[in-house]
Amino acid sequence: MKQILAVPLLAGMFLTACKKEMKVKNHTYGNYDAVQIRHISLDLKVDFETKSLSGSAILDIENKQSANQVILDHKNMDISEVQVDGKKVGFEIGEYDTVLGSALVIPIDDSSKKVQVFYKTHPDAEALQWLSPEQTNDKKNPFLFSQSQAILARTWIPLMDAPAIRFTYDAKISVPNHLMAVMSASNPTGKNKEGIYHFHQDKPIPSYLMAIAVGDFQFHNLGRNTGVYAEPGMLDKCAWEFADMQSMVDNAEALYGPYAWGRYDVLVLPPSFPFGGMENPVLTFATPTIIAGDRSLVSLVAHELAHSWSGNLVTNETWNDFWLNEGFTVYFEQRIMEKLYGFDYAEMLTTLARGELQHTVDDMMADPEQKNDTKLFLELDGRNPDDGVTDIAYEKGRFFLRSIEKVVGRDNWDTFLKNYFKTHAFQTMTTEKFIAYLNANLLDKNPEWKSKINYEEWIFQPGLPSNCESMKSKELERVSKSIEIYKTDKNPESIDTSGYTTHHWLFFLRNLPALHATDMQKLDERFGFSSGGNSEILCDWFVLSVRYKYEPAYEAMKQFLGHVGRRKFLLPIYKELIKTPEGKEMAKAIFKQYQSGYHAVAVNTLKELLGE
User: Fold this and answer.
1) Are 37 and 140 found together in one domain?
2) Are residues 397 and 535 in the same domain?
3) What does the angle CA 569 – CA 292 – CA 531 come to, to the nearest 5 degrees?
4) Which of these is catalytic: 29, 331, 394, 420?
5) Among 58, 86, 193, 296, which residue's Cβ finds the most Cβ atoms within 10 Å?
6) Across the 612 residues of the chain, what is the mean pLDDT of every consecutive 10-residue run?
7) Is 208 one of the catalytic residues?
8) CA–CA dist 49, 39 (Å, integer)
9) How far is residue 478's CA from residue 301's CA, in Å, rounded to a whole number?
10) Catalytic residue at 134?
11) Which residue among the candidates 126, 231, 241, 304 is catalytic per the annotation?
């Protein structure tokens, strides 16, 4: 049922749009072909008691087609008033959709320039996670962070929520004066007494890159234009872990051109953050699970940094084109890691990823409902765009780009990519436009190249093409030899693990033979897996513990699932648990206990998995 707010209309204006079904394009109700948002000004108060943001958003608009209305996206927020150029107007809210929310329809005319929406978010706004002090690292102060990707910005800002729409923004954010606010914009490096913070983002960004965080955190400078924010108790550890961050920026610029965003800083969030990282411009949000104490997981920072070119600078126009963000970024990440840590190390990471990709493709191809989702170009219309967040966009995309590099040569490929980012800076890109650009600026120069690069198969066909390379890694060959020895005698003492990093251990765990609980116990006694602090290793270990019914690890597993909210770690363990009736019962009990500490993104995924 529609909600009609009876407030005065602009003279001579009547609303009729919501009397018929709202059109949806690119997962937005927004009529962005007719009306474009150029700038957004936010004035919001952060209230931890009510778990809400309240205030207003002023949208600077350009009415390009003499439209009589502007249509915005909003989901589960209270709209109290709307003004157009300072005059109060009526508005309508369309029917509610569980994925898309509702259309907010506002009357305008040819001369309309500014639309101001006064609103308040709900405590359960999906983009916002409100954490009690107990859920943070230091356990002293509350914490708020946002996660707007893919289409959750509409739960905390009324706007046109699609990647095709770019705008600049500024913000005034009021917070409790013992806390600090940061955004995907120019940021403070310390608290102020008033608790009022001003932000400016003068580069046009899509809505999914709108970000805010509020908490008790401090800043540590790491170099010319890099630094890290973290809770005081984590700051020194984070600064040590990210010591190479300035070198990452410098090497990335050497590869594909100048960094366009000014500063590159990282905010380390509490454990409930559902992703490894989020590439919010200027300020990457990162999971604390990458603070491993040995700098072995900093490829995630390289990945989010690479998004400053692929994604933030050149953005997928629709969520069907998601691979244009992630495939390019994983490829770029690999090149940064190779520059910093050498070819052998980078190839070890790529080899592990190749195995994960094969596993994903095998699972999805076996399910008729998922088979088509193994294409690079997706078909997400009418679906939640989060369905596209799989290894396909990331890893199949990366290996497609590696296949092009192998055909045309690295020098030619690097020149192409550098020009690609420069030519399309602050613009959107579709798969169709990319293919045209690839042909015109690279493949048409050499018929032999074009014949070898089967982009039609890579992009539009399910599964992996025959020329998707298999991988070998010198570093992992040593691990393979240890595994062969272990298969023979099942004696953990015979395994030489000197010099093992996280990635050596992951390869080891993923390639062990079938085990019994007694074998697991011996491995645990030898290597202390259950009591380890590395989340990557713990995740794989707990999956094996469930598979082989190694019950001594269950309590540590439950604590892990209660502490870590990163979906990458939650899903494999929950998936393994539900394979047996008793495991599914345990999974549901664990989820019920810890659900309140998970972000909505993780909660929605796990509810679907558990059938709740």
Assistant:
1) yes
2) no
3) 70
4) 394
5) 296
6) 36 39 90 97 98 98 97 97 98 96 97 98 96 91 96 98 98 98 97 97 98 98 98 96 97 96 97 89 96 90 97 98 97 96 94 94 95 97 93 97 97 97 98 97 92 94 94 92 92 90 94 95 96 93 98 97 92 96 96 90 92 88
7) no
8) 30
9) 27
10) no
11) 304
